[in-house]
Amino acid sequence: MITIYSLCGKDDIHYSPHVWKVIMALHHKGLSFDVVPVDFSTIRDIEGGAFNSVPVLRDGDRVIGDSFEICTYLDAAYPDAPALFAGAGSEAQVRFLESYCLTALHPPLAVIAVMAMHDIMHPGDQAYFRAKREERFGVSIEALAETAPAERARLQERLAPVRAVLTHHHWLAGDAPAMADYVVFSALQWCWVVGLRDLLSPDDSVAQWFSRCQALFGGAAQKPAGAPRGA
Amino acid sequence: MITIYSLCGKDDIHYSPHVWKVIMALHHKGLSFDVVPVDFSTIRDIEGGAFNSVPVLRDGDRVIGDSFEICTYLDAAYPDAPALFAGAGSEAQVRFLESYCLTALHPPLAVIAVMAMHDIMHPGDQAYFRAKREERFGVSIEALAETAPAERARLQERLAPVRAVLTHHHWLAGDAPAMADYVVFSALQWCWVVGLRDLLSPDDSVAQWFSRCQALFGGAAQKPAGAPRGA
User: Fold this and answer.
1) Which range has the worst mean pLDDT, A136-140, A151-155, B9-13?
2) Which residues in chain A have their CB less than 8 angstroms from residue B175's CB?
3) N or C: which end of chain B has fewer CB within 10 A?
4) For B118-128, what is the mean pLDDT?
5) What integer pLDDT is reported at residue A223 of this predicted model?
6) In order of start, what are the domains of chain A with their CATH numbers?
7) Do B91 and A173 touch (CB under 8 A)?
8) Which residues, 6 or more positions from A120, have their beta carbon under 8 angstroms from its beta carbon?
């Protein structure tokens, strides 16, 4: 049985984009799994204290703590299940997309989503989150949230390469969804689960692709709150 | 015989990144070709006036005028030569990278390279280039060039996804160079050919990969001035 540890807010909302990459990967491979919720104060208790971030995956005796490492492990450990990566070129593509998400999408999303994230957190996490964000940005999270309109405009520009692919292909991975899609999807899913549903215009090809991703695996990512349990 | 039309400055310097994509693609496929230099005033004369930008490629009766279309044509027309793309996933990867170059790399590079580009152009093109750039940016090209240090810093940040791939792979296409590499290489080669050789620190993995790209095909892209003639 596979277990993943996931940062969780009120109402069972799993909001870490890095955890969502692994949730989508596990569904893609058709593997059953349980999700164990943690919060900022209990991350340090995961598997004896070896980790300071999620996701962490346990599969039997194996414990792995980085979303990319987890996904390459899943392809190696379950070679007969559908592949997440199609060789070295595909791995290189996903490495690029992961860094693009971290450096181009996450900065605007972190501002756009700051109050919604705060509001779905447990009270103890709210205080920790506020302190860390105010330290990073040098202003109150309320003041930070006031800059969201400019960040929403910046997000639209930053999504241009995703749109360029979707003009010619149904999926970022090409003919069928795979890890390339799940990496970028998870950045947007993070904001969707905390309640931001208006980041994209409905006629935007990115919005339509996002809906296609959410509909995969029996709509596993369509639940307003919470990661699906099991495949 | 294949002919490509290329924007050319003094001393036979071919400086269009879009032309370089096609030059690298033709070498990759081992095809012989001739390069016909044009300048801004003669682009409109190419092949009877059907095009307003380069590259344009003629192969027998076929004339094609977009670098991506040219490269997919080359794979289709010469299927026995080494492939530029490895299927739909690879095409999707290159579409993403092409848009990433246009939206993330070209804006800082256009500022960093503005005076060097101007200085290698023929006098007639210099006047046209100055007018177009000053219209776009609203300042003289000399004033624009003074903002280059900030754009150099921005370029380093924008290259993060390229570095993320090169930490794990020798080439952006994975195990061997292909179109994914040539697309990003050509953006940096544009600045290299006009004389900017210090954009990257020598210990930067991007600099080392750029050198590996330049060394391909017998060092076809290592000549300080000019596109190679023939394969």
Assistant:
1) B9-13
2) 88-89
3) N
4) 95
5) 81
6) 2-77 (3.40.30.10), 88-219 (1.20.1050.10)
7) no
8) A9, A10, A11, A13, A15, A194, A195
